[in-house]
Fold these 2 entries.
Entry 1:
Amino acid sequence: MHKLTNRTPLSEAQEDYLKQVLLLGSGGEGPGRLEDTHPVSTQSLADQMQVKPASVTGMLKKLAALGLVEYEAYRGVRLTEAGYRVALEVLRHHRLIEAYLHEALGYGWEEVHAEAEKLEHHISEAFEERIAEWLGHPSHDPHGDAIPSATLELPPTTPNRRLSALEHGVRGLVARVATQDQDSLNLLAHLGLKPGAALQLLEQVAEGSRIQVGKERYLLPMSLAQVLWVHLEGGPHDG
Amino acid sequence: MHKLTNRTPLSEAQEDYLKQVLLLGSGGEGPGRLEDTHPVSTQSLADQMQVKPASVTGMLKKLAALGLVEYEAYRGVRLTEAGYRVALEVLRHHRLIEAYLHEALGYGWEEVHAEAEKLEHHISEAFEERIAEWLGHPSHDPHGDAIPSATLELPPTTPNRRLSALEHGVRGLVARVATQDQDSLNLLAHLGLKPGAALQLLEQVAEGSRIQVGKERYLLPMSLAQVLWVHLEGGPHDG
DNA sequence: TTTTATTTTTAGGCAAGACTAAATCTTTGT
DNA sequence: ACAAAGATTTAGTCTTGCCTAAAAATAAAA
């Protein structure tokens, strides 16, 4: 029996599961409309949450009973409308906090993830509002990830592509750094490859992507080239 | 067996208990040196934590096993040196957050407590440092409560007295508002009775204290007069 | 199609931290 | 001094969220 008029506050774990179902169920471009998501496997959730698959099954049953996910045994899980809203709310908290830590408190953009991960579950709506206000209601966080609005709409997407999928010679701006791995973040930050940075793809080789950033040339391993999303120079315009 | 080389991170509940043992064990003037505290009863902790006495007993045993409190059955509890340090650290977090919410994010001084209560357990040392830096390493929070330094020293105490204990005619400045009750805070805020405000005690009556604030006169109920700590005008100097 | 490998679920447990009810200590009143 | 009252502790449960091991379902391969 679904409890759609759900006003029981969710636990931290529950919120985290919902967030991950959204993230894993969306393409690499980041979360979009609920209809565009695909079901998520128990295993992928277990990996993401650093937890055993059996634990995931247990939690999914609870969330299904709350009407927050649609869960069919052996068949993966997807969010309901209600679960989707919760997930977006958590994402909004996370990304606003990242932006605030970066802009207001001088955190490096590569340092903000861990702190936001803890805080996202513990701030009030008032806090959310005040930092959003202070920041001027930003549409993207320091990693280039979209921030849902107060009414949970996502900002319009721009046509970005993975560095690893570009043709040689192409120039563009880093639009998004889609990893949370601390080592990767540190390296990319060290190379100046943060959102907004200009780069040119020299060529794709077996080991990864040879690029030029300012006057420097680097060979970026495949694993990193895949998480760097690039906005093409002179690419498609929308207006 | 005490585990004095304690580096197991404490739970939120454990930190809260330690904080309350410190607060309840200190006089109304707020926490001072560990030697000046008195043992705290199970009942008073239960009241403060909104929990049944049996639950308190259970937790105290755990904390005693960790070497954070000295606990003798039926006899109350006090902090050990290690527990005292944890309690001060939590208090520092709490009060720095209150100050930051007030000064940086425009929270009213009467609104900050609830938010700080949640956040105090979830911020990193880096976060603590950055907001302390931003604030200029303040010695007191918006309620006038002392903030332990990064090395956990308490700022020198000033000779304040409860409004309810003053003689009529006396003038002074509000030094501290020692309540966390939201209704009381709202009322005091409404009357402009925040730390720094000047007032004069007209007379003590059975129902409370008749005072003058600016051009207004109020009869402040006993319960409120007891939580208002006043710094006497032209009072004892220390230099 | 049948076997094998992989994924997922079930079953049973554990640790925190709360609760209730019952037992036991301490204090207090006379 | 002693009994009643009040405070505290013990004993036994419950819920949450995780675990491991074993069973079952699905998917892949022969």
Entry 2:
Amino acid sequence: MEKTNAKDNATLPAYALDDKDLAILRLLQQNAKITVRDIASQIHLSTTPVHERIKRMEDSGIIKQYVTLVDHAKVRKGLMVICYVSLKEHNKKSGAKFIKTINELHEVIECYNISGEFDFMLKVVAENMDAYYDFHVNKLSQIENMGHLQSVFVMGIIKQTHQLVN
Amino acid sequence: MEKTNAKDNATLPAYALDDKDLAILRLLQQNAKITVRDIASQIHLSTTPVHERIKRMEDSGIIKQYVTLVDHAKVRKGLMVICYVSLKEHNKKSGAKFIKTINELHEVIECYNISGEFDFMLKVVAENMDAYYDFHVNKLSQIENMGHLQSVFVMGIIKQTHQLVN
DNA sequence: ACTGAAAGACACAGACT
DNA sequence: AGTCTGTGTCTTTCAGT
């Protein structure tokens, strides 16, 4: 069935996406629940090739996940904070420990290794300022090897999209 | 915390979510394509109440959107940059103009109004450094009223989730 | 690679407890 | 609010072009 083993598919494009693949991705990015029939009619194809193309993009990891987005404020996570972290020591072991801890903190929804004066950038969500203060003082600050910490508060969301393919 | 407009109900929870609603949200956040039957069996309910609860959460805006996530590198958007922007003037009109322009730039996938020395934080994706340089010089810098600009490069993704409800 | 048809799984609505 | 049952629509497979 499959030509290549999809084990080591972490970096490079698995194959060249043609215009029809990109059209499918454009539609799926906006609405994960669009029907195969609907896609098929919009790109002037029958369901079978559309279904096969989606399957191929799922198997090759181009399509990573279908997720449901929830309204921040309505689930009581109205406060968003960008948090900068630098560690005291920069050896492999302490870095790995930090990463493990971050992955266990559900308030942290994103974490990036960044260039510049800080080591990491975190996106944190909390119900309100009290909850964030508690998180900052009792969880973040308590991480071993923690160096400097700086919080930048998000006052408004101007744009938020997951549309990588345009 | 987000500002409220008088005409929309964007801020407050529409109603109290019970444990079953939260259980449904937890499953949907991880997989938008999970079947109602599957959810029903996992939370020990039949399909009808699950279906009704999902519908209610969609209608009230708690569930915002079902999206498909695509692998950055595999669609040739391997470079992620955090970009800080300050405007020269801070009147309402120039702010609105900036927001309009940002929404038209498909390289910008997120934009927040932030506290601190800069006005906005942008998350930008590009194929490579050449593409980002072109975006920076020919698009971002050319925006009228543009003040200071600072780029922070993402060297590694430690954590990325959309799981707001835990 | 694609079309068209056909089987099985599913969402969704109705009658009822 | 919930279960059970039925109907129409969908995904998914298969034979054929």
